Amino acid sequence: ATATTNIGRSESGRQLGSQFIILNCEPYQHQPKATLDTIMKFIPPAINLALYCACILPVTGKLRGNGKGSGNEKGKGPSNPQDDQPSPVLTEDGDYHASPDEDCTLLAIDHLMIPGEEGHNIGHGRALEGDASGLEWACTFADGTVADMSGLDDSQRSDLEDAMNKGQIVSGSARLDLGRIPGASRKGSSVTLPPGFKVKQNARASGKGKGQGGGSGRAASGRRNLAQLVGNKYTLVVKGKFIDYPFDSKTPWQISDDVFGTLNDAVNMASQLEACSFGKLVTKPEPDPAWGNGAFTSLEGIESAPGVLEIDMGVNMAGMSKSDIWNLFVEKTMLALDPTGAVITSLPGPFDHIMFSREVCLPNASDSCTWAAYASVNSWGQMYKGNYISYPGVQVHEMGHALNLAHSGSNGISWSGGYVSVGGYTDHTGMMGNPLFSDEVGNMCFNPAKNFQIDGWYNDAKITLDPMDATWEGNMVGVGEYDLRGDKPVTIKIETGTPQDIFVGFNRAAGPNLQNDLADNLVNVIQVEGNDGVGYSQSRLIGLLDTSASYSELSVPGIVDYADLKIKVNSINAGTLPGTANLKIGFDQCTSDLHCQDLAGGCFTSSCLPQFTAGTNVLGCLNIPILLCCGNDICEGGESSTNCAADCTAGPNTIQPDDCQSCWTRDGAMFDVEAKPDADLSITSIEYKAYTASGNVRVYYRVGGKTGYASGTNLLSNGWVYAKQAAACGAWDYCAISGLSIDVPRGNKVGLLVAYDNGGDILYYSNNFGIVEDDYAMVHPGAAVNFNLAGEYAYSFHNSLMFTGKVTYTADLTTQCTSDGDCDDGSFCNGQETCNLGTCESGTAPTCTAPNDTCSDALGACVSCLSEVDCADGNLCNGIETCNASGQCVAGTAVTCGDTIACTVDFCTPSTGLCTSSPNHLLCDDGEYCNGAETCDTVNGCQDASPIICSSPMPFCSEPLDQCVKCLSNSDCDDGDMCNGGETCNVSGQCIGGTPIDCNPTDTPTKSPVTPQPTTPAPTSDLTPNPVTPAPTNGLTTLAPAT
Q1: Which of 250, 515, 570, 640 lies 20 to 30 Å from 386, alpha-carbon distance?
Q2: 476 exposed, middle or buried (CB, 10 Å; 0-12, 13-18, 19+)?
Q3: Which of 85, 88, 90 is nearest to 60 (CA)?
Q4: 405 close to 228: Cβ distance less than 8 angstroms
Q5: pLDDT reported for residue 192
Q6: Could you tell me the pTM of the whole model?
Q7: Between the CA of residue 817 and those of 463, 677, 698, 821, what are the distances in Å?
Q8: Distances (CA, A) of 695 to 753, 755, 756, 760
Q9: How much is the average pLDDT of 529-545?
Q10: What is the mean pLDDT of residues 952-973?
Q11: What share of residues in the chain are helix, strand, coil (percent, to 5)?
Q12: 1026, 956 in Cβ contact below 8 A?
């Protein structure tokens, strides 16, 4: 009875089966002993012994599934392609204790209770009295098994329903990691969670497809969005024949006609869904031809009537639990569709929806059987009891659940036709209330909230109204005449500023809504419990309006605190085509200045202006606060949190980052809380999400924030302060450390460390790195840390967490200022501070440009300098520049360098400002060479030099040539020999030989030869030179030889 659809088909199993031709052992190959013993009670006696011997005995105690064999057998069954999770661990007592990686998919099971039997228990320990919704919870596993969660306590069930209505978890998608939950176990067809375990905080969104047995996975083509309400919906009906309840009262053809209209049934599920959607949703009694790339396209040879399988279940229903029966339907449907298991490895396979139907429900501990049908929300499976499979109202209701629609109820209202009682589905203006229980009556659609939620049917006839911005007035039509609407809406959503939005419709009894069960042709007003009306959420009928004096107007409080929203019916015209209701939705216009003044109070001067005039409230009141009046909503100068708490305090406020869906663990968390500029905060409480149930958790804080703390260093030595500790309150729960008083000055941060002191762990969010903020506070991302109590230090930082917890604080709005002067910090250069509603705001720094490119707080102006340093040009020779009192640079006095020595050159060194004298010998030169090179002495001036001494062979000094030469004149060259000619001195001071005298010239008469006579030279002193004419000197000066 708890067989999964992933049957382990081992080779030896096949061989064993072949020895007994009439038996099929495969469904039993993977079952544990406890389950097989239970199955044996339902096997017909004729084959009991043979089946036991051939199939059950050889595999007793072996657990098979997910296509895996056991023992020495190799499983060859197809594994689920969407999940790869290990099988749970089977213990000797028959419990499946969750393995470390095992998880289950959460499934909400919504029941439609039979009228008059709502007060009976439906199996989870709670009576469906008045407001009960008929909601149960179950788990589906990767191996295809389905287990109920009937052991949930009231707090856990309430927690889950609340999370469903708020969109925090989604049925058919959210998953639980059972392996991470201490004390979680699975026994047979039930899952048990530890008492007090917070289910919704630990459910997570799934990135995987779903398993079988009520999940929403599809093996061959992947998971499709079941909540999509347009296009074809491929649907299968399975009629189950039990041995003790064969369900002979309905033939497959009758069921096919009642569901699909095969034999032209006037009203059926297929026709009604197509009519309400105006052709946008079509129900097909056949497999999806595109599934698995055409792997399974026909029911030919399988179906007993179009879209209907009639299956012999082979067992008695008596004694079976609700989950056992469901799982048996899953197993038998799988085998009927694909006996080999080669194509369809999980349900729904090639179908969008499967409707199981059985003759009766037998009350037992798990099921009181007061339901007509139930369905898995946002999933594929439905179960019908007896003739309810033939009622279109029941069919459409359950299909609504499968498409993620919740029940429609009421909190109890009076209307012109009587009273609508309190209940989870007492709104009979739509199919998601307790619908029409009849085979031939079913022309009713959904209420305005569901019509707005449905995506694709009436998208061009929806209006979203924010009454804070506008008033709406006009005609609307009923959903039954959507095709005649023109530009008129069929549903109006009123934004309330909360997830509990309001929806308005005209409950016109016409077309597919002709057989509406309540308040024909009236205006129905619906409010949802969460999800903004765009996801699964219980809805409540809050008003039925007509044109009578008593019921033509509905006042809705709570959107603003000083006025009610009004929904008024001006007229209803049911005699036209289409019928219309003329409405006005919005806040009333103020009637006078006094009206506004009465609402605002004495700290305002009020005027009544046309609605939505700039600056007015929703009534049209312009309320100008009277300054320095406690109660004007402004915390002004002189007011404080002690003398005007109404204006100057806020809170206690709680700021909470998103709860972790995939949680990580570590000793503690270190993060910053920052106060915004307009309030001083006092943190009074910190809540953390505990993973470890015992131990103490400490809080430390550090003014200025956590930045700068070095891992492994003592906290107290690094500016941290120990605040308080408190005992942990329990695993997976929020635990509070209250009584704190940690001040966070406005505009500043404080670092917080929340950590176990005994090695315990908190839970934290590892993939959310944004700042979380409200009006006055910001929580910054931080680090997960380990903590050492002995050394009081944090270490092993993981800098990627968002603290999973809550920070509660009060805000002191005591004003900082009443005028700009209160904010002036005395600095011109950081801009002019201003006072804005009691809070000082920083100014904008002035822009200083050259030459006045420096800002002076002292002068309150842009200047060229603040000190001499700003003026220095790096050259000390032009003087030392100074900065005057006006911030302008003044040039210095240049250094004068000079001495009395005429032949020196004087100059200043820029880097030192010192004078230096350098001799210039050229200034002493007299222009003569031969008397030597004159020099300049830096002390004594020009100094004469020693004359040039010339010696042989250059004995003479030449001024023109500035060198020693051989001659200065011709005489310096005369060698005393006249015969060799007269020597001359050239311009370069070199002697040039003369032309020898020719004593026998050819043109001279011949003379007789003369014989020379020897002579004896006379002493030179006795010789007198002959007078001669001096030869040219060629500019050469003859110097007398030195004596």
Answers
A1: 515
A2: buried
A3: 90
A4: no
A5: 82
A6: 0.65
A7: 46, 13, 38, 8
A8: 16, 10, 7, 7
A9: 93
A10: 91
A11: 15, 30, 55
A12: no
